[in-house]
Amino acid sequence: MSGAKPADKKNYRELYTTVENLSIASGLAMPRVYVIEDSSPNAFATGRDPKHAAVAATTGLLTKLKDAELEGVIAHELSHVKNYDTRLMGVVAILVGSIAILADVFMRSMWLGGRNDDRRPGNQIFLLIGIIAAVIAPIAAMLIQLAVSRRREYLADADGALLTRYPDGLADALAKIATDRTPLKHAHTGTAHLYIENPYKSDSKVAKGNWFVNLFSTHPPVDDRVRILRAM
Question: By CB atoms within 10 Å of each CB, which of 90, 112, 167, 192 scores lowest?
């Protein structure tokens, strides 16, 4: 889906050795390394556990970041691997989907059996509460999923900074990635949450300072992430 191809150690030596060195430093097994031919600077990690993990970076990331900045990004992604974030978000997504399915089943059963319902006032109130809960529950579950995603990004930032011992490297990288206006060619809603920064560049200006938009975002505001890293 992302157009990633295995990174050749000879052609992408800097990326490969960075992943290798940080994997050793963090005590993780060496993940598979991939490169995405795209001028937009971004990266992501995936895999159900450290033994089945993969890290992917765009060519834009490799050409536009300094060595310390690249280390910060890779350390962030390896922290996702170490914290089992892909597995965690998969479980959360299943729970959110289950809630949505149960709400849909309730609504359908209510309409199909509505004609035989007892019309007493008490039952009507209970039915109304059930309808409201069925409508709100999937939305609340989705908001919880997005909140968990944002918290894991903060955690990966902190763990990545701890791994490199240089928070400014990741902070500088995030600032560069966020201000780069080149859109990611293979951006997809199903994988957008995996990237270190939202690949839909057009959303950043709208989201800045807008708490409602940020509430439905998979990533925390870059300004907040950079501020926290600078304070470390």
Answer: 112
5 forms beta bridges with 35
List pLDDT tens digits, range 27-51. Answer: 999 999 999 999 999 999 999 999 9
Distances (CA, A) of 181 to 42, 71, 205: 12, 22, 11
In-domain check, residue 144: no
pTM: 0.85
Query: How many domains does the chain contain in total?
Result: 1
Tens-digit pLDDT profile for residues 63-76: 999 999 999 999 99
Residue 65 structure tokens: 């970041």
* DSSP secondary structure of 121-133: HHHHHHHHHHHHH
3-state class (DSSP) for residue 195: strand
Q: Is 231 exposed, middle or buried (0-12, 13-18, 19+ CB in 10 A)?
A: exposed
Which position among 71, 77, 153, 197 bears the catalytic label?
A: 77
Q: Does residue 47 contact residue 23 with C-beta atoms inside 8 Å? A: no
State how far the Cα of 47 lies from the Cα of 204, in Å rounded to an integer. 27
Find residue 55's DSSP bridge partners. Answer: 33, 45
**CA-to-CA dists, residue 219 to 111, 167, 198, angstroms:** 38, 18, 7
Domain harbouring 82, CATH code: 3.30.2010.10
Quote the CA–CA distance of 42 and 192 in Å, as a whole number. Answer: 11
Quick check: is 176 in a domain? yes
**Across-strand partners of 36?**
4, 58
